[in-house]
Amino acid sequence: MTDLRTTVVVITHNRRRELLRTLDRLAELPERPEVIVTDNASTDGTADAVARHHPEVRLLRPGRNLGAVGRNLAVREVTTPYVAFCDDDSWWAPGSLTGAADLLDRHPGVVSVTARIVVEPHGTEDPIVRELRESPVPGPPWLPGPALGSFLAAATVLRTDAFRKAGGFHPKLWLGGEEELLAVDLAADGWWLVYADDLTIHHHASEARDATLRRRHGIRNTLWFTWLRRPVVPALRRTLDLARTVPRDTTSLLAFTEAAAALPWILRERRVLPPEVETRLRLLEPTQRASKARRYTG
After folding, report:
1. d(Cα 62, Cα 182) in Å, to the nearest integer?
2. pTM of the full predicted structure?
3. Per the database record, which ranges form the Glycosyltransferase 2-like domain (predicted)?
4. Strands 147-148 and 192-203
5. Tell me, what's the pLDDT at 206?
6. Which of 184, 264, 288, 289 has the smallest C-beta neighbourhood within 10 Å, fewest atoms?
7. pLDDT of residue 297
8. How many CB atoms lie within 10 A of CB 270?
9. Mean pLDDT per 10-residue run, the chain (298 residues)?
10. What is the pLDDT of residue 291?
């Protein structure tokens, strides 16, 4: 069942144990995909462990922590038409990469396919799955699944050329809701993003994470995305909604402060979305307000 259409890209930072488990699972896939790992300057011996235990993996060592841009670095090396992202604590289920490639082959207007996320070790669905499955975004009848307004980098297969043309993940956003800006830029280019319920990725959340920093970046990046791409009135509405709903603590204050400090950059880079893409975002706003899965990352 070897499938040469898709390359798997993983970024990692100081999660040696989790990454080795993920690479073990990827090595067992019947598709036998090429795997590229960008080690974001780990100090726990991650890179050496990968080279020792998985010499078949292409290992990139940029020498500094690039955040989500580590994926961009890896995609430069990809020669397959599709690229599958997963985190260092998640892995694709057997057959799902082939299923995603088949969907993209059959539907040339679709740029990304996001899979169902199963939380390990108990095998339960991630709460975000219901939101993906019940997405309110309208799409043409030929779509192979619900249309989405964004995607989850840890569970998505994309067209390699489209990813490159759109510029990949923006370096300023780092990590935390970094997908949203790229997603709307892809939509503005005329692409559709979809969810596929019959594809699966497993996620065994690492305990090695800074939840406070991720929330801070998530709030900040949501504000940046909002003012980079949305018209003034919806941007004001979204900003006020965030101000009312985020926890009133130091983390939120720092996020808003960082977002405001970047105003000159926002004004230089601001490019309002086409009306049809903005309409999709407005339809998503009630879901965003009610979401318990992605409340602080868009």
Report:
1. 22
2. 0.94
3. 7-130
4. antiparallel
5. 86
6. 264
7. 38
8. 12
9. 94 96 98 98 97 98 95 98 96 98 98 97 94 95 96 96 97 92 97 98 86 91 97 96 92 96 96 96 81 47
10. 65
Lookup result for tokens 């069942």: 1
